[in-house]
Amino acid sequence: MEGSQALVLFTLYALLYHSVAADHTARYLSEAEEKELQIQLKSLNKPYDEYGITFDCVDIYKQPAFDHPLLKNHTLQIKSTSFLKSMNKNLSSETVKLPRRCPQGTVLIRRTTREDLIRAKQIQRTKRIGLQEDTVSVQAYTVGVSFSSWNRPEKFYGISADLDVYQLSGILDSQTSATQMIISKGERGPLTFHNVLQAGFHVHHEVEGDNFTHFFTYWTSDGYQSTGCFNIHCSGFVQTSEKLTPGLVYTLRNLALSIYRDRKTSNWMLYNDQEPIGYWPKEILNNMADSSRIQLSATASSPTDQPSPPTGNGELGGASFKKIRVLNGGLDPYPSNVQHAETFLDIGKPFYEGIYNVDSGFIYGGPGGWEPPKF
Ligand SMILES: *[C@@H]1O[C@H](CO)[C@@H](O)[C@H](O)[C@H]1NC(C)=O
Ligand SMILES: *[C@@H]1O[C@H](CO)[C@@H](O)[C@H](O)[C@H]1NC(C)=O
Ligand SMILES: *[C@@H]1O[C@H](CO)[C@@H](O)[C@H](O)[C@H]1NC(C)=O
Q1: Handedness of CA 310, 312, 315, 321 (dihedral sign)
Q2: Res. 98: pLDDT tops 90
Q3: What are residue 180's DSSP bridge partners?
Q4: What are the phi and psi torsion angles at 28 (to 5°)?
Q5: In what order do the strands lie in the sheet with 268-272?
Q6: Closest residue CA from atom 14 of ligand 2
Q7: Coiled coil: which residue ranges (predicted)?
Q8: Which residues, at least 6 apart from 314, have a Cβ–Cβ distance to it below 8 Å?
Q9: What is the distance between the alpha carbons of residues 107 and 238, in angstroms, rounded to a whole number?
Q10: Bridging pattern class, strands 214-220 and 195-204
Q11: How confident is the model at residue 151 (pLDDT cuts 50, 70, 90)?
Q12: Rounded to an integer, what distance in angstroms lies between the CA atom of residue 184 and that of residue 295?
């Protein structure tokens, strides 16, 4: 009995040694050490499935972000050094209910599949060739509020807002519906210095592979040309949360998002309420000493031969961004008179709605149903 166990263990060790043959420091572990190691490995590598998606708990230092060539010398930043005074300190928000999914020292990462990469390639291709290749083109309709510092002395260093999150149904695989924060610099060119960071929630079959509502991120440092991607379809975005990660199916009813530049490290932090989700390291951005434009918006896209899909909760003005705070260099909220808010609306009632008010925030949403006239 004991003998056969020892043999099994020996065989395992032999296999282990074989696979780490180059590691001369390898040694026999005590039984206790081995047990501990196995438990650790199990919790580290135990994948779990949710809505048909596989997630892993990955050693925070070994996450895919660090494969980015510009992050060779990057120092991991687990928490912000800058205290965001404006951040919602009232933890009544639903998001604190998110269960901790990974052990300490690891981060939650959505496993990228072959299909994910194939679809991501398709997105790149569609972007490059424009959307006009097919006989049926795709049209996007956006409603939002923007804060811009163009030709003005103000510089923006962050944004925070509370977002209502809804599960929308009936969105076709060829359509998308997204609600997001977009913070950027260099919008007026050249493209190679157009840096953009995005976070929010969407139904987007091409990105996520299903029709659920997902938490998502996006970044580019060259105006959507060749850098950046959604979620972690490429390396760059550093994940620090054990709970919330880009690509997760998001079923709670709100998100309290902040994106802001850390005053010490210059990394662009992404927080949900008081919890760090991750950040965009300064190394992958080439023009984000500050931001010149912030947008809170909803975008519905659809092939032009289909009625456009809903946004928000599917009702006119049924969804909102609340507690909107545009942050200055000290990460304090700018007074509303220097935020220079402008609302924009591609298609209005009865399809979509968008109203900004300093006190009540940005109210938006609609059932969609718009079809461009046929000529
Ligand atoms: C990392 O540091 C080394 C040594 O200082 C330097 O040669 C290299 O260029 C750095 N790489 C990046 C990507 O910053
Ligand atoms: C937190 O928010 C809830 C609901 O909005 C409110 O009832 C409560 O008084 C708030 N608590 C604090 C400490 O502000
Ligand atoms: C998602 O699509 C499936 C079939 O493709 C459909 O049965 C389901 O109702 C859809 N769910 C939503 C939320 O639209």
Answers
A1: negative
A2: no
A3: 200, 297
A4: -65, 140
A5: 238-239, 275-280, 268-272, 254-261, 158-164, 319-327, 361-365, 353-357
A6: 90
A7: none
A8: 166, 168, 365, 366, 367, 368
A9: 10
A10: antiparallel
A11: confident
A12: 9
DSSP character at residue 113: P
Residue-wise pLDDT tens digits, 167-204 = 999 999 999 999 999 999 999 989 999 999 999 999 99
Whether ligand 2 lies within 6 angstroms of the CB of 89 is answered as no
- If residue 271 lies in a helix (H) or strand (E), which one and from where to where? strand 268-272
Residue owning the nearest CA to atom 12 of ligand 3: 169
The residue whose C-alpha atom lies closest to atom 5 belonging to ligand 2 is 92
Residue with the bigger pLDDT between 233 and 28: it is: 233
Ligand nearest to the CA of 310: 3
Pocket-forming residues, ligand 3, beta carbon under 6 Å: 169-170, 211
User: Furthest-apart CA pair in the chain: how many Å?
Assistant: 83
CA 280 to centroid of ligand 1, rounded, Å:
19
Query: Domain 48-365 adopts which CATH fold?
Result: Jelly Rolls (2.60.120)
Pocket test for ligand 2, best of 87, 88, 90, 94 (most atoms within 8 A of CB): 90
Phi then psi for 82, rounded to 5 degrees?
-100, 125
- The Cα–Cα gap between 257 and 350 comes to 29
Closest CA to ligand 2's atom 13: 90
Confidence of residue 121 (pLDDT cuts 50, 70, 90): confident
321-359 residue pLDDT tens: 999 999 999 899 998 877 789 999 999 999 999 999 998
Flag whether the pTM goes above 0.90.
no
Residue among 72, 74, 286 whose CB has most ligand 1 atoms within 8 A, to mutate: 72
- Looking at all shown ligands, the one closest to residue 205's CA atom is 3
Q: What is the whole-number distance in angstroms between the Cα of residue 51 and the centre of ligand 3?
A: 12
- State in Å: Cα 172 to ligand 3 middle: 8
Report the alpha-carbon distance of residue 229 to residue 295 in Å, rounded: 19
